[in-house]
Amino acid sequence: MSRFTSRRAGTRTAEPDLRSEQAVRAAYTAHGPELYRFALRQLRDEGAAQDVVQEVFLRAWRSADRFDPEVASLRVWLFAIARHVVVDQIRRAVSRPSSTFGLVADQPHGPPARGFDEQVMNAWLIEEALSRISAEHRAALVETYFRGRPCAEVAVEQGVPTGTLRSRVFYGLKSLRVIMEEMGVEP
C-alpha cells in the first residue's frame, strides 16, 4: 500500500497514511502548529497545549485505521481529535482547579476557558462539507444563506429563476446536513 491515499479520484490532495512514522511526522509538520495554537487559545497554558498536540498525534497514530479521507480531510479529523483532548483537559482542570495549569486560588486570570473555539471548528467543518456538494448548490448557499443576500438578487446574478435558486438552497442545506452527519457532526 502506498504511503498516501487519495480522497476522491483526482479531486483532492493526497492524505498521509498515519500508520508510518514518516507520515505522522509530515502530518505534525503540516498541522502541529495550528493544533498548538488552538489548544493554547482554549487552555491558556503552553505546557498543556503541547500535551494536547502530543496526545492528538498519539491518538491519530493509534487509530489510523479509522481515518477515512472520504469522510473528512486529515486536518478536520485531527481537529476533531484535538477538540476531544481539550475537553478532557478542561474536565480534568475543573475537577482539580488548583493543581492543574499552575493555577492557585488568588491568581487573577481565573480558571481556564470552559469552552473552545466552536466557531473556528464549525467553520472548518462547514468548509469541508461545502466542498462536497455541487457548485450550483454551494454558490446558492454561500450567497444567500451565509452572506445573507436576497434570493431575487442572487438569482438574477446567477441567471436562474428565483424559484430555482430557492430549490438549490433547500437541497443544498439538505445535502449539507447529510454530509455533516457522515462526518460525525451532531446537530
From TrEMBL:
GO biological process terms, semicolon-separated: DNA-templated transcription initiation
Record-linked Gene3D superfamilies: 1.10.1740.10, Winged helix-like DNA-binding domain superfamily/Winged helix DNA-binding domain (1.10.10.10)
InterPro entries: RNA_pol_sigma-70-like, RNA_pol_sigma-70_dom, RNA_pol_sigma70_r2, RNA_pol_sigma70_r4, RNA_pol_sigma_r2, RNA_pol_sigma_r3/r4-like, WH-like_DNA-bd_sf
Highest taxon of source: Bacteria
Domain RNA polymerase sigma-70 region: 28-93, 129-177
Keyword annotations from UniProtKB, A to Z: DNA-binding, Sigma factor, Transcription, Transcription regulation
Gene Ontology MF terms in the entry: DNA binding; sigma factor activity
UniProt-listed Pfam families: Sigma70_r2, Sigma70_r4
Keyword Transcription regulation listed: yes
Protein family: Belongs to the sigma-70 factor family. ECF subfamily.
Protein name stated in the entry: RNA polymerase subunit sigma-70
Source species: Amycolatopsis antarctica
